[in-house]
Amino acid sequence: MGAKNRELKQSKDLVQTLLTIQDLSYNDWLHEKHQEYIKENQAFVMKSLMHYKGLNDVKENKHY
Q: Which domain of life is it from (predicted)?
């Protein structure tokens, strides 16, 4: 079961407070987390896109 709205708000408020104390921007921090997640999953995304476009079959059938 996912987090409830109340739990999400409490977590967000705590992170915002901690970042403010450290003179860091919540939006900058959140953007960084988004970029990290995208980077960590980039291979999966590319593989999925290639599969969707049928490029895996073409690439695998080429003999170099």
A: Bacteria
Identity at 24, one-letter amino acid code: L
Has residue 3 been placed in a domain? no
Three-state SS at 3: coil
- pTM of the shown model: 0.66
* Radius of gyration of the chain measured on its C-alpha atoms: 20
- Tokens representing 31? 């953007």
Residue 20 lies in a domain: no
H-type alpha helices, the chain: 5-21, 26-40, 42-52, 55-61
